[in-house]
Specification:
The chain contains two helices and 22 strands. By secondary structure, the protein is mainly β. It folds into two domains: 162 residues, Tachylectin-2, Chain A, CATH 2.115.10.20; 139 residues. Strands 1-2-3-4 form a four-stranded antiparallel β-sheet, with no helix packed on it. A four-stranded antiparallel β-sheet has the order 5-6-7-8, with no helix packed on it. Strands 9-10-11-12 form a four-stranded antiparallel β-sheet, with no helix packed on it. A hairpin with a 6-residue loop joins strand 10 and strand 11. The radius of gyration is 21 Å and the shape is globular.
């Protein structure tokens, strides 16, 4: 309860601070009659941002990027073509690497109707640092989709995707070097490939060369959340997956924040008490749960009209805590009934 009160007081204080627009008008990153899809972006080392999107302005769907400085100016003039191979390039993700550059990964349908994973590296000047068309991350037959990527400590990145090469939906991963070469098994290693479906995931570097992740595992219509830790060589360091949230009802939508000292805080949507609530847990790199029971960030089961809370997001703070925000339907009865018809709202 003390943690929840602290978060509420912090948000109340922030709400009192005056807001001020830094730019006089919105910046038009891309405008025209063509269709723009799958937008993403990241901050740059010099106070700006790089935005990436999929665009059909040349006929087929290609991948483009633009850098905007802190004053809202287009740094590269015309957008940078990241990949213009035939067919579709979409679903991009971008991360800033430890060497001050940027890796962009995407799903590419040029050489596989089900989609493969490719990546490209660029610098602050908008130069492509790898081969034209990008470097292949996974070109194994079957569907690859739903990318997640974070930088490693050596100028490369960890990349996770949903993979259907097996009968079920699984999660595979690859670590690529600063030059775009695979550091783990070609076409990725299975990081979650049980008999059910492993889907939505959250992943962060562990600060020691490896990565921490959690994912939703669905089997026989029951969704639970598990966590794993992998070292820099792609080896799982725990004897088994950590059952982060395996109570009755469904648990999903897990998100994570990295704290100091090899500790991580996870938050998720939890339906152990009929309508969804927001829960959290803290674990360390050794595979230990640091709270004896999951912390209820917010639950209104005792309220006269309980309503769903869902889709949490978490951000670590400078005092080694975290702020968690979520969607809440206490004031939206119509949406509440459609999401959780069994609740009394």
């Amino acid at each position: 309860m003390k943690n929840l009160i602290l978060v509420i007081l912090l948000l109340s204080f922030v709400a009192l601070l005056p807001a001020e627009l830094q730019w006089s008008s919105p910046v038009q990153i891309r405008q025209g009659v063509n269709i723009e899809w799958f937008r993403t972006g990241t901050e740059t080392t010099d106070g700006g941002a790089i935005y990436v999107w999929s665009d059909t302005k040349l006929g087929e769907r290609d991948l483009w990027a633009q850098k905007v400085d802190a004053n809202g100016n287009m740094v590269w003039g015309e957008p940078l073509l990241i990949d213009g191979k035939p067919d579709r390039q979409e679903d991009p993700v971008i991360t800033r690497t430890s060497d001050g550059n940027y890796i962009i990964a995407w799903i590419d349908f040029y050489d596989d109707l089900d989609g493969n994973v490719y990546a490209q590296k660029i610098n602050n000047n908008g130069d492509l640092l790898w081969q034209e068309g990008g470097k292949p991350v996974c070109v194994f037959p079957g569907i690859q989709i739903g990318l997640n990527m974070e930088a490693d400590m050596d100028g490369g990145a960890f990349i996770i995707w949903g993979d259907s090469r097996n009968p079920s939906k699984d999660l595979y991963a690859q670590r690529i070097s600063s030059s775009g070469d695979p550091l783990w098994t070609v076409n990725g290693i299975p990081i979650a490939d049980g008999p059910g479906d492993e889907i939505q995931n959250t992943m962060l570097p562990d600060g020691q060369g490896g990565m921490m992740l959690a994912y939703t595992y669905t089997f026989l219509n029951d969704a639970d959340i598990f966590a794993k830790h992998f070292d820099a060589n792609g080896n799982m360091t725990w004897a088994q997956a950590m059952p982060l949230a395996v109570a009755t009802g469904n648990q999903n939508g897990v998100r994570m924040a990295a704290l100091t000292g090899g500790e991580f805080m996870f938050t998720w949507t939890d339906q152990r008490n009929n309508d969804p609530d927001i829960y959290a847990q803290k674990v360390n790199i050794a595979g230990e749960m640091l709270w004896p029971n999951p912390f209820i960030v917010y639950g209104d089961q005792d309220a006269p009209l309980p309503a769903p809370q869902q889709n949490p997001r978490i951000q670590a703070t400078s005092d080694n805590a975290a702020v968690i925000v979520w969607e809440d339907f206490r004031l939206d009865n119509q949406k509440c009934r459609s999401l959780c018809p069994k609740s009394s709202c």
